[in-house]
User: Which sequence fits this backbone?
């Protein structure tokens, strides 16, 4: 019963966060793409993780700092990856040489490897920082949160599409 209640509260809080974020969409559209990151959802995610992991104030501050560095690293790597894919798209349309296309493909794959390496680095750092039970909860939370977020966004998209706004 307690688990079901907790999931309902989590779902309601997630939906509220998404609705609040939706209010500022018009303003965000005027912002550059890198500034449109869903920072409210990330803050909510960090707060929930701190709560679930039962971190002290000192550990919560350290955890937040580590997470911020990781998030910035991933954002920079994703920006670089997307730029490489945009470049690849332009070159593929220009009937570029195979060697030129291969160079662009290698850049994308190199960025993918860097993203994977950064995720491993972050998980290794978290594994050393948290005890085994906390790290297990961390891994499970990450998967479940991202899954629920993806599902909620998909449902919102479906509803918008059904109303003819899409």
Assistant:
């Amino acid at each position: 019963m307690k688990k079901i209640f907790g999931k309902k509260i989590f779902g309601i809080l997630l939906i509220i966060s998404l609705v609040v974020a939706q209010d500022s969409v018009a303003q965000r559209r005027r912002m550059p793409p890198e500034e449109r990151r869903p920072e409210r959802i990330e803050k909510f995610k960090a707060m929930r993780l701190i709560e679930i992991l039962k971190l002290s104030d000192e550990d919560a501050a350290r955890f937040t700092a580590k997470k911020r560095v990781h998030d910035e690293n991933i954002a920079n790597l994703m920006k670089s990856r997307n730029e490489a894919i945009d470049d690849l798209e332009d070159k593929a349309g220009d009937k570029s040489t195979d060697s030129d296309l291969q160079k662009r493909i290698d850049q994308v794959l190199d960025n993918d490897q860097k993203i994977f390496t950064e995720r491993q680095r972050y998980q290794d750092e978290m594994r050393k920082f948290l005890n085994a039970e906390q790290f297990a909860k961390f891994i499970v939370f990450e998967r479940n949160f991202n899954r629920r977020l993806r599902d909620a966004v998909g449902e919102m998209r479906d509803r918008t599409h059904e109303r003819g706004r899409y």
